[in-house]
Amino acid sequence: MNNLKTYLTLCLIFCFALVVHAQKFGYINSQLLVDQIPQVKEAKAELETLQKQFEKEAQDKFNNLQTQYQALGRKQEQGEISPKQLEVEAQQLEAERLKIAKFQQDRQQQLQEKSETLMSPIREMINEAIRTVAQENDYAYIFDNSTGVILYADEMTDVSNLVRAKLGIAN
Predict the structure, then answer these.
(1) Which of 120, 121, 139 is closest to 130 using CA atoms?
(2) What is the SS3 assignment for 168?
């Protein structure tokens, strides 16, 4: 009876080992991969250009507002403006300052939306390449080691080159 239990236990361990061994695992470094994709470089350049344009617009508006504040200060120093009129113009300038702040927020949101519009198809392209590599090479799992989740990875399981090839990126 003891021999039968030992035999069955060994059989179960052997079967479990076969099942575990049959699964293939791979990993990639998605950050390095993303940095090598030409479309990402183009998207970053476009976003940088747009950001500089938005910053210039905001700076121009701010400079104009600052000039108006200085002009109002000169009028006050020279006694060319009544206290009531000073208060009205100061309120108008404050309203303009709030508009500029809103303008900057709106531009920041537009920049984020543009980033999502440009990067979403690239992320989908990468995910599709990863799925294809996994299916073609019978990988059960592919991990991303750029996130720091993997504690150990055999370099032989790095499938980054296969994904680069699928994306048409030279090594």
Answers:
(1) 139
(2) coil
Single pTM value for the model: 0.70
**121-159 per-position pLDDT tens digit:** 999 999 899 889 988 998 888 888 888 666 456 777 888
Average pLDDT over residues 88-99: 95
**Two tokens, residue 78:** 């020279």
* CB of 34 closer than 8 Å to CB of 83: no
Domains annotated for the chain, with CATH where assigned, are 25-167 (3.30.910)
Helical (H) or strand (E) element with 37: none
Output the DSSP codes for 116-159: HHHHHHHHHHHHHHHHHHHHHTTEEEEEEGGGT--S---GGGB-
pLDDT in tens, 62-91: 999 999 999 999 999 998 989 999 999 999
DSSP 28: E
Residues 49 and 114 sit within 8 Å (Cβ to Cβ)? no
Q: Round to whole Å and give the CA distance between 76 and 90.
A: 11
Q: Which residue shows structure tokens 């440009």?
A: 118
